[in-house]
Amino acid sequence: MSQIIPIHPMDDFKERSRKVLNNPGQRKNFRGAMDFLQAKRKGQFPDQEEREGLRELGAAIRRYSLAHLPRLLEQLEHKLMANGVQVHWAQTPAEANAIALGIAQRVNARRIIKGKSMVSEEIEFNHAMEAAGIEAFESDMGEYIVQLAGEKPSHIIMPAIHKTKQEIAKLFAEEVPGVSYTEDVDALIQIGRRVLRRKFADADIGLSGVNFAVAETGTLCLVENEGNGRMCTTVPKVHIAITGIEKIVEKLEHVPPLYSLLSRSATGQAVTTYFNLISGPRKPDELDGPDEVHLILLDNGRTQAYADEQLRATLQCIRCGACMNHCPVYARIGGHAYGTTYPGPIGAIISPHMLGLESTYPLAFASTLCGACAEVCPVKIPIPDILVRLRTEAMAQPQSEEATLRGSGAARTVSGTAVWNVWSQVYSRLGLYKLASWFMSRGRAMSPTEQGAWTRSRTPLIPAPRRLRDLLKDRKS
């Protein structure tokens, strides 16, 4: 059984970040990986005009889909049911796991083989199944590595990007029976493949994520490179797909632009190796495919984001990871420091809806607001603006007009509130401002050398010996 790694308390975020920052080897590995992914993406968008046109089209498709989300969800359910797919609705992770467990118990399943699915990570699917005595086995190579290590993915596209080949070689030698230590990458891949192929044949259920769900045709689109997604959805007799309610588009013609943006932004590929279109279970005249197909549509805080006009843009995300690859913070601390399923800029704006702002507000402050994430987002999510909004919510007075999210006001403290109230009074009254600035300039020698987080990496703030108004007064005289 894999090790259960719970969501980390946000109080530990700084400690985890410092741990990575004090590890030169890990920092070097992440920096090299991010530079490589940035270069790959740049190579796929040589024409700036074409890139921006495609981004605008992708953003328009996602905005349109979200604007019509309730209708499209109903249409998708109707079409899928007509195609023979059973549709289930889950408001919470517990409900989603209960639905999947009910299906597994009905067919007496003992083993589940999984394709890559971040939503399954979000709901702790593996641990819920294992608690019920059902093996849930990852078939994506990166996911298999982190599962074997008892870890969480550190990137939404490349789960084991934090691992070196030496670490993987040691892991395989220790955990896979009959395997000797080797640092040959091709040999390591073959070792993983041999293990995984046996699992496909033995599995009772295959589980996958969904990249796009097409309402007009009742089609589930699955993007992948390894072929394991296709195996998971065709070899076992039962296929369970799980996705968030936002992964929907109206028409099949809306998929190609988003697919192009996803593959080019995520891994720097023109197209991925496999693109699967799933519209129902195996028909009588077909040679392969499952006897049953189920779709679990998960909310888990997404309707909270949807209800707010500004925060709704969060749901435009197509999970490419480009914002993470270009984020100067993520590139230095990696995914595990965030302590959430979705790290980086996208994690900072989506996790508060899933876990509550009281558990995640430090992530909104873990940003330079440089705007790199917004510049590369293929569907033009204004991430910096949303981060500022979440910071405001975190500092808001409970039950005020500014406090609209679950956990609003979590970062608000008595001392902090008092400081800002004094600041507001001083800067809103000219007489007080003149008096305060006079005392600060004359008493500059009393300025503390330790000024909290500011002086950890900066020199102390010391008022000027003379105020600007004094300098201007001398110039006039």
Tell me what you see in this structure.
The chain is α/β, with parallel strands linked by helices and 477 residues long. The chain folds into two domains: 10-303, NagB/RpiA/CoA transferase-like (Rossmann fold, 3-Layer(aba) Sandwich); 426-448 and 456-476, no CATH class. The chain has 22 helices and ten strands. The protein has helices at 13-21, 24-44, 48-67, 69-82, 93-106, 118-122, 125-131, 141-148, 165-175, 185-202, 228-234, 255-266, 302-307, 322-325, 330-333, 344-355, 357-365, 372-376, 383-395, 414-428, 430-442, 468-476; strands at 86-90, 111-114, 135-138, 205-208, 212-214, 219-224, 238-244, 248-249, 274-278, 292-298. The protein has a six-stranded parallel beta sheet with strand order 1-10-7-4-2-3, sandwiched between helices. Strands 8-5-6-9 form a four-stranded mixed beta sheet, sandwiched between helices. The radius of gyration is 25 Å and the shape is globular.
Q: Keyphrases for this structure?
A:
single chain, about 475 residues, alpha/beta, Rossmann fold, 6-stranded parallel sheet, 4-stranded mixed sheet, 22 helices, 10 strands, about 50% helix, globular, disordered N terminus
Average pLDDT figure: 92
CATH homologous superfamily of the largest domain, by name? NagB/RpiA/CoA transferase-like
Helix content: 40-55%
In the CATH hierarchy, the architecture of the largest domain is: 3-Layer(aba) Sandwich
- Number of separate structural domains: 2
Main β-sheet description = 6 strands, parallel
Please provide the count of β strands: 10
Give the C-alpha Rg. Answer: 25 Å
pLDDT < 50 runs, ≥5 residues: 1-6
